[in-house]
């Protein structure tokens, strides 16, 4: 604080250095909150910037008695709700509701008319050790960043989504959520009950399968996955899948259920390129791989797809592969170049 004009309580208003320290402290967690609300990395970037702009312009309204963090979350949440109201689709999807799995060649094509859930780079996550939720939270921090969880909460109406994130993920009380969202504590509890019931329908046990912290087995699975792609070893890749594995490939309509069906699909596309190069990364707290591909008679390896892996007991339970045109556009957000040319050093990121 400096000799800035007083706010409504008579306390000095946040000056620029103090405000900048506040934004640095809370930027990553607010961006993650906006991502969970919107299902979009790019929209989250815009909304966290909008949040800080609104906070700076309205800093005289913060009297210093409440939590600066809570004040910023209130602005961010309301910005997200307004953005959802303004856009044509209220939610992003990872899979199309009620669409049966495909067999064989993918024929449905990309769905440009749908809005797809985007992955979130681990490099943008707040420090999970320092970002533990409050005592009333129902989800562990690592669990609440997973791609399957973010996809599930997109099924909720915006107000229910906000209530669930504030209370069950961040650990706010129903009273605190009511003060932010408006309405009574009873209305927040009612919204939470409906939101939990929806997630219960999505997950028979009421929540996604809980994952342990990254382990040696997970690192080994990722190394094997990378080797199969570098060697263009289709059979080796398929062996890493569980028998009941699922495969989605946004923005294409088609998806596949079971190892045999996934093998059948890849058998139709595996030789479309002269070779592949895989780069390890992480997304949504999960192992991920960026694939560069080289076409016949072309020297360059170009961004082709981004793979997010759901491991389970040393195998792959679910695989979400962001393909063109969506996939290559995501590389920049993960700090990856669009083209990797021989013989330059191969880009790399830590496996865990």
From TrEMBL:
Where would I find the RNA polymerase sigma-70 region domain in this sequence? Answer: 25-88
The RNA polymerase sigma factor 70 region 4 type domain is annotated at: 147-199
UniProt keywords (A-Z) are: Nucleotidyltransferase, Sigma factor, Transcription, Transcription regulation, Transferase
What top-level branch of life does the organism fall under? Bacteria
Which class of enzymes does this protein belong to? transferase
What EC number(s) has UniProt assigned to this enzyme? Answer: 2.7.7.6
Where in this chain does the record put each SnoaL-like domain? 223-317
Q: GO molecular function terms here?
A: DNA-directed RNA polymerase activity
Record family assignment: Belongs to the sigma-70 factor family. ECF subfamily.
The record's subunit annotation is: Interacts transiently with the RNA polymerase catalytic core formed by RpoA, RpoB, RpoC and RpoZ (2 alpha, 1 beta, 1 beta' and 1 omega subunit) to form the RNA polymerase holoenzyme that can initiate transcription.
Q: Which PANTHER family match?
A: ECF RNA POLYMERASE SIGMA FACTOR SIGG (PTHR43133:SF65), RNA POLYMERASE ECF-TYPE SIGMA FACTO (PTHR43133)
Which NCBIfam families is this protein grouped with?
PRK08241.1, sigma70-ECF, SigX5
What's the protein called, per UniProt? RNA polymerase subunit sigma-70
- What species is this protein from? Mesorhizobium salmacidum
């Amino acid at each position: 604080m400096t000799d800035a004009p007083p706010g409504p309580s008579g306390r000095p208003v946040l000056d620029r250095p103090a405000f900048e320290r506040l934004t640095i402290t809370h930027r990553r967690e607010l961006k993650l909150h906006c991502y969970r609300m919107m299902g979009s990395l790019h929209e989250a970037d815009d909304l966290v910037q909008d949040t800080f702009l609104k906070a700076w312009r309205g800093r005289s309204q913060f009297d210093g008695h409440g939590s600066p963090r809570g004040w910023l979350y209130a602005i961010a949440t309301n910005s997200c709700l307004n953005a959802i109201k303004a856009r044509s689709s209220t939610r992003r999807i990872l899979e199309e509701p009620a669409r049966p799995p495909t067999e064989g060649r993918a024929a449905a094509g990309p769905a440009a008319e749908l809005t797809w859930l985007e992955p979130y780079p681990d490099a943008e996550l707040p420090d999970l050790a320092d970002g533990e939720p409050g005592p009333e939270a129902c989800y562990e921090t690592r669990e609440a960043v997973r791609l399957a969880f973010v996809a599930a909460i997109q099924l909720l109406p915006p107000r229910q989504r906000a209530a669930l994130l504030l209370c069950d993920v961040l650990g706010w009380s129903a009273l605190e959520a009511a003060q932010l969202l408006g309405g009574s504590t009873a209305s927040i509890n009612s919204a939470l009950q409906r939101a939990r019931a929806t997630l219960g329908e999505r997950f028979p046990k009421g929540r996604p399968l809980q994952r342990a912290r990254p382990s040696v087995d997970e690192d080994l699975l990722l190394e094997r996955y990378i080797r199969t792609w570098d060697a263009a070893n289709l059979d080796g890749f398929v062996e890493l899948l569980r028998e009941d594995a699922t495969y989605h490939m946004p923005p294409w309509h088609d998806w596949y259920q079971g190892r045999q069906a996934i093998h059948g699909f890849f058998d139709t596309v595996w030789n479309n390129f002269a070779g592949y190069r895989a780069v390890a990364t992480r997304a949504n707290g999960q192992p991920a791989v960026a694939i560069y591909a080289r076409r016949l008679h072309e020297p360059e390896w170009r961004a082709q797809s981004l793979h997010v892996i759901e491991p389970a007991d040393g195998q792959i339970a679910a695989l979400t592969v962001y393909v063109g045109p969506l996939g290559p556009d995501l590389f920049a957000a993960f700090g990856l170049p669009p083209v990797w040319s021989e013989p330059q050093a191969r880009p790399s990121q830590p496996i865990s």
